[in-house]
# Entry
Amino acid sequence: MANKFDLKKLLGHFDDIGKNIGKGLLNVREFEREFSPIREGEEELSLKYLKLLSKDKSFKNWWIMPEITDKDLIKLGGKFPKLKPLDRRIIEDLFELIKSIEIVSCILRFINPENYAIFSSPVENLLNIRGISPVDKYLFYLKDLTELKDKYEFDKIADVDMALWTLSNIINHEYLRHQHEYSLIYENYSQSINPVKKIMTRNCLLKIKDETPLYKADLLLESDPRLAGILACVEMEKIVNDLCATNGIRILEKKRSGERWLSMSDKLGKLRFGKNAIKKDEAEDIEKWWDIRHKLVHGKESEKEINEVPAVIKGILEFQSEYKSDNRG
# Structure
């Protein structure tokens, strides 16, 4: 069994990964030192500091600093020593001026590395960051990094970003995964349930939380056809139960021996023969899909059932559409 995955251990591999993938990295510790007068309230954010960034070779590999003057920066005077975590107002003011959330994140990260981090695409994609506007995305990003900071006991939000950037590159570059010093890291990550994966999954599911169950099933089809089939059949049962309710069919019957839930076959029989509410081919299809559902739920599916899941989802979507149309024969 793989050892427990520890994100914090990846921080020590940050520089080596940068060299391995041939990307120039910012000298983050040096920039933290250079920006410390702003952090300590001794100086304001001025053009001098933006030039420090824009002249850096590694910075230029990633971003282009827009034309800014000291006059443009006057409105930000006195704000940075009071910079709070997740300070939307300052993030918005900087973004309005610079128009790049990545550059904004660099500035904030070097002024206040305890509470801010660079907004990098590899980490954004790893965590499936939510948000519509760039500012919203950055705030969600910082919240997720704060959660991981607490889970793994990092000292700074900026260090969490560096560790995640390291992890994302190990995941995304196959040749790194097979190098001795990184193979165990990748194994521990891939074979464990860990906070990084939980945040990634949560963000992904929250993006589609308002979608219908059948649409979610369709989205899951490629990555997890078994789960997609189960989810679709849950919705199919609900459609059948709603159809029973519409036609006055009790799905919980009272018998002398007690109460009994109608089986799917019984419900379909009553809908078809008792109420003429569904067609013969519909009842036959649902019986077949219900059998596939049993195999999926109990882990007894074969490749044959897995291959039929796309047709099951398509068929249920069509059945749902006809059921809602009020145009049934």
Summary: The mean pLDDT is 90. DSSP finds 18 helices and two strands in the chain. The chain has two domains: 7-207, 213-324.
